[in-house]
Write a structure and sequence with these properties.
The structure holds 2 protein chains of 2 kinds.
Chain A: H1 3-6, E1 8-19, E2 22-33, E3 37-41, H2 48-56, E4 63-68, E5 71-72, H3 78-85, E6 88-91, H4 103-114, H5 119-132, H6 149-161, E7 167-171, H7 179-196, E8 199-204, H8 207-213, E9 216-221, E10 224-230, H9 240-247, H10 253-264
Parallel strand pairs in A: 3-8, 3-9, 6-7, 7-8
Antiparallel strand pairs in A: 1-2, 1-4, 4-5, 9-10
Helix pairs in contact in A: 4-5, 4-6, 5-6, 6-7, 7-8
Chain B: H1 3-19, H2 23-60, H3 66-77, H4 81-104, H5 112-150, H6 153-159, H7 164-201, H8 207-217, H9 220-246, H10 251-282
Classes of the chains: A alpha/beta, B mainly alpha.
Chain lengths: 265, 283
């Protein structure tokens, strides 16, 4: 394996996934170097979440290969899958906190249940992580229903980083938040990732968020990556689909394709 | 008739011929509909079979979660006690009243104690407890797990290296299968006590002869068959509740539908399996 290839943390090659006749992913190719942050942008229903779930092993792709540290993760047995999952941390769109558990138990969940850590030790780590995302330690004894959306997102982030993962996934990290709280979450993501030195894959359609947290940006459209490059080149991509999306224009190739598809249907 | 009108009429006739379905088309359409329904049915049966296999496998394979199992014991067993107790009590009371009025026509009032204890232990306590628990616990399991599915909490479990089958399904299946027999045993006692109360204080039976009749008629198989039925019903209720919750559709409607399916399917399965088990025990 060459040095350049060794430096690739996550690689997707020709990943395809269909649900019945609906071809959601039609051959996704992506790679993320170690320690870099890739943000995948794209409209609703373009396959962002399905791609993320394929990488996480929550959905089995129909075709293609997903390599983590050069090792295939598609079709591996449950033990190997478990070993791979230990490298991951994930912040869900709605935070996905467990309602019946206290905040500290949510943050420490993977440490206690997944790794068998002692509860007291896990609690200490959980409180440290809760403070690292800007919340008071006393929040640890509350339940998720007692927190605002922004605070839940912070707890979700604390849970994602609790086990010091090598790769962190962010699914629409700023959706449903006001612009100020969204920026706070973006800053926290950047800081936490920098501290951990982790590789990250985020999906979003919030361009402010993408610009803030990305080293590289990829645009997914109709189940394929149509553009991939450094965030600095996003405004000069030369790709009409990217231009329409990042400027939020009502007219452009995406709208025209959509009209044609409706007419054909 | 002008040429234009003639052409338009010809086009309309052609279209009608094209669009009209022949008898063969209708037969083929019906066959397709039946085929799709059968395929759908097989898909559901296959899905449930795989789910049950996974659930049972994870019941016996470590790691185990004793705290969660204990919590389910309390949720399913302790909190169902009032519902099952009330159902058994009033069923025993009504049974004593009804059998007395029926048997009085044949001067066979003395059989009331026997009818009450056999009906309660063999059939009424397990079936009614099963149906009440299906309504209370099956619905709650489907709603809870369905909400976890919709809010991505089940996906979160997987990303935290915790198997959802071990963490969510196995404790519920263990608790459902073990706690329903306990509830039915209590239901047996309460139901017979209900019949005793009505017989003594309303129908004028002698306490001593009522109890001795009850004790003399009952055999071990009457109680054991009821408890075995209860274990099967508990398994069915918990598996159906978990299955429908785990495969819940999106949104509030999806969770609502999962809850309904859980209660309906477990109730029907209780009635079917009750017949089969009765056939095995008493035929």
């Amino acid at each position: 394996m060459s040095e350049a290839e060794q430096n690739i943390k996550l690689r997707l090659c020709g990943v395809k996934k269909s649900f019945g006749s609906n071809k959601v992913l039609q051959g996704v190719d992506l790679e993320i170097p170690k320690g870099k942050s890739l943000v995948v942008i794209g409209g609703s229903g373009t396959g962002k979440s399905v791609m993320l779930k394929c990488v996480l092993g929550l959905i089995q792709p129909d075709e293609g290969s997903i390599l983590i540290d050069g090792q295939e993760s598609v079709g591996v047995d449950s033990k190997e899958r478990d070993r791979i999952m230990r490298k991951f941390g994930m912040l869900f769109q709605g935070a996905a906190l467990f309602d019946s558990l206290k905040i500290w138990e949510n943050v420490a969940f993977g440490l206690i249940q997944g790794r068998g850590m002692d509860r007291e030790e896990a609690r200490k780590i959980a409180i440290e992580k809760i403070q690292a995302v800007g919340l008071r330690a006393s929040v640890g004894d509350l339940f998720p229903a007692e927190l605002s959306g922004g605070m839940q997102k912070r707890v979700g982030l604390a849970r994602a980083i609790a086990a010091n993962p090598e790769i962190i996934f962010f699914d629409e990290p700023t959706t449903g938040l006001d612009p100020i709280m969204a920026d706070v979450i973006n800053d926290l993501i950047v800081d936490c990732v920098k501290d951990l030195g982790a590789t990250t894959l985020s999906i979003t359609h919030d361009m402010a968020s993408a610009r803030k947290i990305a080293d590289n940006v990829a645009m997914i459209y109709q189940g394929r990556i149509v553009w991939h490059g450094p965030v600095e080149e996003l405004d000069h991509s030369g790709n009409d689909y990217v231009d329409q999306f990042i400027h939020g224009r009502a007219d452009g190739p995406i709208t025209e394709d959509s009209k044609l598809m409706h007419e054909a249907a | 008739m002008t040429d234009d009108t003639h052409n338009t009429t010809t086009e309309l006739t052609d279209n009608l011929v094209k669009n009209s379905k022949s008898a063969i088309d209708y037969v083929l359409d019906s066959c397709e509909a039946i085929g799709v329904t059968i395929m759908h049915l097989f898909r559901i049966i296959g899905g449930i079979s795989i789910f049950v296999f996974n659930a049972v496998t994870h019941v016996f394979l470590p790691p185990f979660y004793p705290r969660l199992i204990l919590r389910q014991f309390v949720d399913i067993g302790y909190y169902s006690l009032p519902v099952v107790g009330m159902t058994a009590l009033f069923t025993g009371m009504v049974l004593a009243l009804q059998s007395y009025t029926g048997f009085a026509r044949f001067n066979a009032e003395s059989a009331v104690a026997s009818v009450v204890v056999l009906s309660i232990t063999r059939e009424l306590a397990p079936v009614l407890a099963g149906l009440m628990v299906a309504g209370r616990v099956g619905a709650s399991m489907a709603a809870e797990i369905g909400t976890m599915r919709v809010t991505e909490q089940i996906d979160a479990l997987s990303t935290l290296s915790v198997n959802p089958f071990k963490y969510l399904i196995a404790p519920r299946v263990i608790a459902g299968t073990l706690m329903l027999p306990v509830l039915v045993l209590i239901g047996d006692i309460v139901g017979v006590f209900g019949g005793y109360l009505v017989s003594i204080y309303n129908l004028g039976f002698s306490p001593g002869s009522y109890l001795s009749q009850t004790w003399n008629i009952i055999e071990r198989v009457d109680v054991v068959s009821g408890l075995v039925k209860a274990a099967v019903f508990g398994f069915l209720v918990s598996v159906m509740g978990c299955y429908h919750g785990f495969n819940s559709g999106r949104g509030a409607q999806g969770v609502g539908a999962a809850t309904t399916y859980a209660v309906v399917s477990s109730s029907i399965l209780i009635l079917i399996s009750n017949y089969l088990l009765t056939q095995v025990f008493f035929s």
